[in-house]
Structure formats: structure tokens, C-alpha cells
From TrEMBL, chains A, B:
Keywords: Calcium, Coiled coil, Ion channel, Ion transport, Membrane, Transmembrane, Transmembrane helix, Transport. Residues 5-168 form the CSC1/OSCA1-like N-terminal transmembrane domain. This is CSC1-like protein HYP1. The chain crosses the membrane at residues 6-27, 87-111, 147-167, 355-378, 451-473, 551-582, 603-624, 630-649. Residues 358-623 form the CSC1/OSCA1-like 7TM region domain. It holds the Pfam family RSN1_TM.
Amino acid sequence: MILSALLTSVGINLGLCFLFFTLYSILRKQAGNVFVYVPRLVDKQKSEEQSDGLNLGRLLPSDGWVRSAWQLSEEDLLSISGLDALVFMRVFIFSLKVFTFAGIIGIFVLIPVNYLGNQLSIDDFYDLPNKSLDSFSISNVNDGSNWLWIHFSAAYIFTGVVCYLLYCEYSYISSKRIACFYSSKPQPHQFTILVRDIPSSSGRSFSEKVESFFTEYHPSTYLSHSVIHQTSKIRGLINDADKLYRKLARIKSENHSKQKFKRDGFLGLFGRKVNILDHYEKKLEDLEENVRMEQYSLASEEVPAAFVSFKSRFGTAVVLHIQQGVNPTEWVTEQAPETQDVHWPFFSASFIRRWIYKLVAVVAVIALTIMFLIPVVIVQGLANLNQLEIWFPFLKGILSLTVVSQLITGYLPSLILQFFLFFVPPMMILFSSMQGYVSHSQIEKSACTKVLYFTIWNIFFANVLSGSVFYQVNVFLEPKNIPKVLAQAVPSQASFFISYVVTSGWTSLSSELFRLIPLLCRFIRKLCARRNGNKFEVPAIPYYSEIPTVLFFGLLGVTYFFLAPLILPFLLIYFCLGYIIFRNQFLNVYAPKYETSGKFWPMVHNSTIFSLILMHVIAIGIFGLKKLPLGSSLTIPLPVLTLLFNQYCRKRFLPMFKAYPTECLIKKDKEDQNEPSMAEFYDKLVTAYRDPALMPVQYARNVDRHNSPLLHSEV
Amino acid sequence: MILSALLTSVGINLGLCFLFFTLYSILRKQAGNVFVYVPRLVDKQKSEEQSDGLNLGRLLPSDGWVRSAWQLSEEDLLSISGLDALVFMRVFIFSLKVFTFAGIIGIFVLIPVNYLGNQLSIDDFYDLPNKSLDSFSISNVNDGSNWLWIHFSAAYIFTGVVCYLLYCEYSYISSKRIACFYSSKPQPHQFTILVRDIPSSSGRSFSEKVESFFTEYHPSTYLSHSVIHQTSKIRGLINDADKLYRKLARIKSENHSKQKFKRDGFLGLFGRKVNILDHYEKKLEDLEENVRMEQYSLASEEVPAAFVSFKSRFGTAVVLHIQQGVNPTEWVTEQAPETQDVHWPFFSASFIRRWIYKLVAVVAVIALTIMFLIPVVIVQGLANLNQLEIWFPFLKGILSLTVVSQLITGYLPSLILQFFLFFVPPMMILFSSMQGYVSHSQIEKSACTKVLYFTIWNIFFANVLSGSVFYQVNVFLEPKNIPKVLAQAVPSQASFFISYVVTSGWTSLSSELFRLIPLLCRFIRKLCARRNGNKFEVPAIPYYSEIPTVLFFGLLGVTYFFLAPLILPFLLIYFCLGYIIFRNQFLNVYAPKYETSGKFWPMVHNSTIFSLILMHVIAIGIFGLKKLPLGSSLTIPLPVLTLLFNQYCRKRFLPMFKAYPTECLIKKDKEDQNEPSMAEFYDKLVTAYRDPALMPVQYARNVDRHNSPLLHSEV
């Protein structure tokens, strides 16, 4: 790729960006789009804009939303979207800091040094536009040149600065985590644990066992428990009832609107409809009865797992952190998820079974990650021009057009890749839910790591180590050769990744900005759901696909920092845009579905450390290839020091992301003692963790109130 | 090595063994040797055999001690020497089970199969005595022969049996561990934790901080605390005083024995002696005064660490398992060691400093392990015949004798190696104590692992991968080639290891049996100490050097199980002898210095798993070399399954070796509530963890009672 081509690409993409910004600014003001652009506001106010008249101001773009997103303070963001959103924004701030520093060094020191070299003296010095991008990378510095020591120093300085920023950020976020805990109201999950693998004994139910165990060993703190039941059958019945209920509500709603015109008309006039209604109502009642019967009979089908609640946070922590039974695979405790975050299936699995599921999931993820590109390449091979002509003979005329054939040859392979990639996050979610996690947040966090591994392998390594899968895997089985192989391969792929950041990065942000593809689908779905009497839902940010994408761009920037500094300005623009867009769209679009209190941060920290080490390994190889063996040897301490820094951070900060310390727990408990509302809270706590499938169902009475949200369960 | 040579070696060693047994049986009955052969009895009865007359029975060997050692039940062993000794014996029982099974398969199945092959058709089939040992190893089976499937099945069956035995043993020992805890009396360390890195604040002493922290956060369970002081200076003074006191006691003792002859003689007669006595007594008083002054002034020099005691075991566990302060590097808690097990130095080091010490120790151990053979080889190179003749010209005549020169060429190199090896365990102890452990047991446990790593590297790998250190390290940097390299190298070294087991294994046991080298030294030291008025001490078993030796022989057996089954009968004899010898001499010689309640077992488990994996890796390589690629591929699941089994054991049993569960702790606590002696125990607990250096000193009054044990500290 030459410089002029890159600049053209940048121009086109910046133009598109600007266009999207303008369109966004106009479209978001249209009344019909509120569900797409400000769903949170809709949810909050429970009122929809009614005026449909034409208004000139609504057709002019405005920058008010950018300003309001920029001016949003951290406290506001925290109160609006919780700590997870704040941490997500801190990832952008951290990246901006890193790439501002890197960009300054890269543009003003490294690019001139690279450009002045003449290792790749393939083109004229003054013919800047036709210069290959490689001229700006380290490949252009002469072998054995002393200028390489500038790169060497840059690697050390950059690592130092990134580690310093990581430390500050880790420290800041962990202090925020504690502060949020201090300011939090009593919440059921703070007082509850999940106990699994309750040992079975003949003649006693699991409920009795739990009761006797905790009253014996934790008499002063134990409050209550609710044993989990096998409810997959009931859940099926309730699903059926739900569908029928929606159908019924829709019919009634249509009925009702017709009645408006005939206020005093009576139901008998709509004979056929009423018959159908009667029929459906009867069916619904039968289903309801079935559900009640099943609920009654299932009460005995207990699963050896229970939510156990305690009177204090510290009492909960005591049970959580100390092994309970003599056998460590019995009475296994873990922190209960937030009530709305519980993932109800998979509770029945025993210790051994969960362990096997986990192994299977790990194997599946590794297989998917390594083998992913094989079917993609096969399908790409099948979907060439000749094959298409054979399959769809009627397209022959169109396919023979030069523009169409170029489009197909150029874009079809990447379209197929994108199509396959589209299925990866849902598959990772599936694998994670197989692992036996009990909450959506854990599943998404685990899927997030998986998607990240997947992206690093299939986008980074598969592109860098172009060749067969077995060759790629082989490289990692010979650790001694890794620096050399990477040093040969990585810089030559620099121009690919620069164009990748420019096109794919900005486009992905723009599509988020425009909210066309993902949200319009949701929009249509929501509208349908509303028609069916369903409750309107504000979308939650899909961390499991967003965080890996953002981190991958960080990985590229850190790895290429001194290899190809040209990548840095584009990353700066990417993170700057991302910062504004995600701040807006926390404000107006996304609502938190759960709160992990910043547990995503350690993942960000680890992947940054990974990128640094990757950079160091490549640096060791590059200085060797560039005939600077001293530089190569002197770089070896750098990854060691970075790993030690990481180890220190694990000791210093990580425990705070796993559990809260005694000091915090007891302070909060003491505060609560003086709260008069605690008695009421305890009352609520007793029923907080009941399986929704076991709650009483009441459809029949609800049917007439078709405007009310669908609550198939009422406490 | 040929068979006849091996049999000769076996004959000589068995003969030596028998001789040692006989000598032992005679020598142990001589009155003068009681300190060497039955020190425990001496310590127990506090009486020495007085009769010195000749007795024919005492000169005849008897097997009573073997019978009593054999008949000793596990309960007796447990009550006499504690759980650690029992676990050590279980290692022998486990090894005996493994090698009985392996021996039967090896001798009756594998050796015939190997012998019938003719891959190494170098010598006559019927000339058994001159057969190379390699004819009994897998090397002799023909390439691609179907007989190799017998070896393949043997590897699977053996792995299955070893894993089953490991599981049973782990289960048995963990149940014993719980049983011992249930039957234990209240002990200070069960109620105490060590808190380190107490945050400093101006104006308040560490003692005040500890008091206020624990009364605030653990008011119902907190009992007392004792802050640790910087006492290295006092310890130096006390050492000086100790020496002086011993000197004085000796002089007085000599004085006293002379007085016996002159009962009414008065001290004035020994003018010179009395003057010296006066001088020394004055000096001792001064020293004592100095110690008191230092103790008084040092009371303010607190270290940010304290032993904190609680009223219940469960209360202690709560503080131990839950992070206390907001900062995880402050208020760091760990289980307190037994009172007699505390290692007082190194308490002052901060979190960061301990961490750095630990890193330094790890680096030092790795360097020592990898580089150890370099100086050895250099010294061995220097100490050859010619060099000796140059250095010691007067030896020229003796050195020219064939016998002497053969002896020097044959034995000097291994003597030098043994000499260097002699320093390894003490060095590992030094490194471990640098790591900041607070108890002797932790230091020894850590040194034990280090010695094991060292032995595996320097005896096993250095012999198998003969070549430069860098070549050896290199092999492990290319994991893909490990199976091949090991498969080529290991079987060819089989005869070396068989002779190693025969000579070194039995000799090391015989020397233990004869107790000549290590114990005679101690005996002399003890006698000297007694003369100086020192207390007689029963030796404690040095686990840190015994366990690695035993495990190393296990490693050899498991690794060579199907490669060279000839090793198995010799290992059987080794473990059988070891079993009898260690059971005796627990009975009569060693006294437990501390009790880790079997915490050594997981190490045994892990090293057995390591040996199995090593065997599998070599098997994969061997089947490849033997042109049985299918066998090679089908062996791959074996190490994976073994690692999964290990992972399962880690989940199922390891937690029980780290801490006791709630169920046990609360049961014991409830039992204690009804004990009337608990009030007295709590009183003792308050002062249980006081630094001996800070206890009041009273030499002056003790001097006259020179027969009493030296107690420089009296509570």
C-alpha cells in the first residue's frame, strides 16, 4: 500500500464519518426514531412524543448531543449507568492517554527516523505520495544502524509510561469500586450466597438439610434459604401460555379499537371473534391450571442447590470464603448474582458434571478458535465467479459486467468472513453458558475473554503468520523461534493493519453511531413486541462483543508502537470518536442490565500487558534481524520487568476485584444497624431469590388490561 | 553393563547390607551407643544405663528390633511420632504397592518380551551372564513388532493402577488429617494468626493499631496480641552470654568434681580458679544487665507484624480467610506456626521486600540447579592423576600403583560430586529461609521441593541428556522435540540408573541403618554439648533431604517401568528396607520437631504424577522411534487423562491440606465450650507467642545448678 492510497482511504472514511454524524444529528430528532436513538428517555418518561408535524429545526443537524456527551461528568455517568459503564469509558480515556503519548513520540521521533533510513531504497526520496507505507516503518532503518537505539529507548520509555498509566488506572478504578460499595443501598446479592452440591441423605429433603446445616454452623447470621427446583418443564408451559396470552391480547386490542367506533355495540355482534376469544381463554385457563399443577407437583423435585441469605454482609462473606463441608466438593459456595442477573438453567449439574462441561467448553472454544478459518476459506473458495455462474445461470448477464465481477472478487471473500464472524459472539455466549455459570454477567464476562482470544488468534496471528493452521500452531510449539518468526512477519503486515484500523475501526464506530444495522433490527422487533402487548425494553450494552473489539485495537496500537508508528494517529482518532459515541449512547440508549462493579477492568489490564510482551518479543527478534544483537539482548529484561509489574498489580489490586474486605463489610453492616428500613429489607430478602417459574401465574385476569406490561408472574 | 557384573554388584551390596544389619543389631545394644541408637528412649526415661560390665548376649546380633519395627501399628506410630511420620511411612507403603504390582508385570511379562526380541542381536541368546542389560529393556524389541502393543497396554494399565492407588492414599491421608484434628487438644497455633504489614500511622504504636483494629472488627472473638520486635541485637548478646555461661558451668563442674575428693575443702584453696570464676561471673552479670537494658529499650522498636490470638478456631479462620484491610498488601494474615516452630528472624521485612526476597531466592535456586554441574566438572577435571602428581609430588610413588590409580580414576570424580551434593540441602534451606517463611516447617517443606527439583535436574536430566548445560536447557525450549530426544536418551541410560539404585540406594539406606556418618557426628557434638551443660536433644528427621531421595527413587521406578523393567525388583528391595529402617529408628531415634499434619503428601502426589507424565512423554517418543506411529498417537490421551485426574484430585483433596473446614472447626469449638480447662488455656495463649529473646534472663542464679538443662529464658 502506498501513502496516497492510504490518504484516499482516510479521506473517504473521514467523509463517511462526517456524513454519519450529520445523519445521526438529524435522524435522532425525528419522533419515529426515539426507540432507536433515545430508548432510555422513552423508558424513563413512559411518554412518547406526540407531535408529528413538520419542523424545520428537526431537519437541520445540530451538535448538542456531542456537547452534552462531552460535558457529562463521571459522577453523572456513574449515577446513570453504573460502574461498569464508567470502567468502559475509562478504557477509552486510558487508551487516549496511551496513544496521545505514543502518537507524539511516534510522529515526531520515530517516523522521521524511519523515513530517513534507506534499507528499502526502492523509490525516490522526494516522491512522498507514491512512497510505500513500509518506508515509515522500522523496516526502512538500515541494518546495524545506531538509529535503532532510538527505537530501543522508545520501547523502554513507552513500556514505562504504559505501566505507570495502568497502575494509576487500576488504583483509580479499585478506589471507585470501594466508594461505590460504600454508597450502595442494601442489595439482596450482598446478603446471599449460592450453595451447590448439597449432599443427599435418605429421608431428608435438600431444604431440610440446608436449614439444619446453617442453623447448626451459622446460627447467629443465618436468615433464610430457597432451594432451587427443576423447572425446565414449567418454563416450557409458561412459554406456551405467554404466546397464547399475547395472541389473545392482540385480538382483544383489535376488538377494542373497533368497539371505539360503536360505543354501545355489544360483543354479540362480533360472533366469530367472541367464539375464538372464548376458545383461547379456555385454552389459556387450562394451560394456567397445568402450570399450577406442575408447580405444585414439582415442589418436591428439588435440585441440590440453594440460595442462602444471611443477616449481614460480613456473615455472608464468612460462609463464602471458608470451605464449609469436610468434602470440598460438597457445600460449594459462591457469591449470589444480582436477582435480575440469575441464569436459571444448569443449576442441577453436579460438581463433576460442571467440571466436565467446563472442559468440554474449553476444548470447543480452542477448536473453534484454531479451526475457524478452515470452513471460511472453503466457502470463500466455492463462492467464486465461475461457481456462481453455474449455480445461478440467470445471473450470467449481470456477472459478466466488469464492475459487478470486480465487486464480487474484491468484496465477496471478506463478506463471507464477516458473515461467519457474526456468529462468533453468540457461539461464545453459548459455550460460556454451558460452563455452568449462574449469572448473565459471568457468562458475558467469560464470553468476552473468549471473543478476545478468538479475535487475537484469527485476526492478528492468522494474518501475521499467513500459512496453514498447522504452521501457525507449530510456531507456538517452538517457543525459541517465536521472536524471529514474529519479527519477520509482523512489520510486513503493518500496512494491512493500518488500513484495517482506518476502514474497519471507523466503520464499526460509524455503524454504532448510525445505529442502523443492529438497532433497526431491534427497533422492528420491539415494535412487534409492543403490538403483542409486550413490555418495552431498553437495550443493554453487549460488553462481550464491544470490549474485545476495543481491546483489539489497543493491542494493535501497542504492538505496532515502534514497528510502524503510522498506525498511532489513526488509533487516536478511533478512540476519540469511540469516547464521544459511547458516552452519548450510555446517556440515551443503553441501560445497565447488571452491575459487576468494574470486574471487566482486570481483563483490560491483562490484555494490555499481553500486548506489551508481544511488542517486546517482536523487538527482541527485530533487533536480532537488524544486526543489533546487543539491543536484542538488552531488550530481554523488559518483558521480565513487565511480567513482574503485572505480578505486583495482581497482588496489590486484584483481590479487591474478587471480594470486599472485612473493613468495608463491617463498616457497611454497622451503618445498616441504625437503619429502620432493614426489617423491611430482610422481609423482601426471604423471597428475593425465588425462581420466576415457580411464582403464581395469573393470566386470565390480566387479559382485559391489555395496555399493562406483560407480567406473567406477580408476587 | 552386563548381567553378571550387575549380579556381582547386587551380591556385594546385599552382603554389605547383611553386614550392616548384623553390626547394627550388635552395636545398638552397647551402652555407650544409646545416644546414637535410642536417643528417644534416653530422652524419655531421663536415665542412662549404668552397667558397664561385659555381657555375651549384648555381643550377639538379634532381630528383635526388626520385629518390633514391623509389628508397630499405625495408631502407635501416630501417637509416638505424629501424622508427618505416618505420612512418610505411607509413602513407603504406597511405593511398595506400586512396585509390587509393577514388579510382577515387569518380571513376568515385560522382561520375557524384551528378552525374546533381537533388535540388539549383539550376543549369543544362551550366554545369559554376558548379556548386556539392554537386552532386558525395550531397546531389544524389534522395530514395528506387535509385541510393542504389550508395552503399550502395560503403560495404560500401570497408569490406571498408580492413579487408583494415589486416589486411595490421598483419601486415606486426608481422612487421617481430619481425624487427627478432631482428636487434638487445643493448641495455641489453632487460635492464632500472624498479621503482617500493619499500616503505620504517626503517633500510634503498632500495638495500639492492632488492638484497635481487632477490637473494632472482631470484637466477639478477639483475645490478645503480641507485636513482634526487632531483636537481632539482643539475640547476639544472648548468644555471647550463652557461651560465657557454658564456659563458666564447665569450669565450675571441673571445680566441683575436684571438690568431691576434698569434701570440706574450701574455695580459697583454688585461688587462681576462683579469681577466674569471679571475673567470668562479673562479666556474665554485666552481659545480663546489658541484655535487660536492650530488652527494655527495644520494647519500643516494634516491627509491623504481630501474633493475634482469638477465642475460637472458627473466629481465627474467619480472620485468616477474609482479606482484612482495603489494601490487600496491608493487614496480610497467615496461619501462625506452632509455638516451637517459629522462625524469628525476617519478621521485619515489608510486603514488597518479602516479594523481592522470594524472587531472588527463586532465581538463585534456578541458577544453582542449572549451573551446579559446571564447577563440579571443572574440579573433577583438575583432580586427575597428573594434576595430583604435580600438586603432591611426594605421592608419586603411591599414585603409580595400579590399584591406587584405578581407585582414583574410578572413584575420585564421583567422590567430588558427592562432596558438592553434600552442600545442596543446607543451601536450599538457606534460600528457603530467605523467602520470608515464618516457621521451620515451611522452610523445610519449601527446601524439600527445591532439593527434589535439584535432584531431578542434576541426577536424572543431566545424566540422560549428557551434554552441555546449554544443550540441556535448549531441549526444554523446544517442547515439540522433547519426546523424541528423551526417547533416544532415556533407555540408553537405563543400565546406569539400575546400578545407581543398586549401589547408591542401598548404600544410603545402609548408612542410615548403621547411622555412622550423620549420627556419629551428632553424637560427638551432643557429647560435647552435654559437657558444656547443654541440654540433650533428640534429632528430628530431616524431611527436606529424606523425602526428595525417596521420591527420586520412585521417579526412577515409574519412569523406567516399561522401558527397563529390570529396575523394579531392586526398587522393591529398596523400599522394603526403607520401610523397616524408618519405622525403627521413628520408634527409637527421631522425635518430631513440628507437625504439619501430612502437608508433605501433596508433594508426593505431584511428583508421582510428574513421573507418570514423563513416562508417557518418553513412551510417545519410543513408539515413534520403534516404528509404531499408531501406538505413539494412541498414547497421547494418557498424559491428558493423567493431568485431568491430577486436576480432579486438586479439587477433591487439596483444599483439606490447606485449611480446616467450618464443619470441623465449629465442632471442635463446641466441644471446647464444655471444657473447664479452657480458661487456663486462654491464659497461656496470651503469652504463647512471645519472642524468646524478650523473655527475662537469669544466668547468675543458674550457674550453680550446672546439671540442670540450660534454660537461658525462664517464663
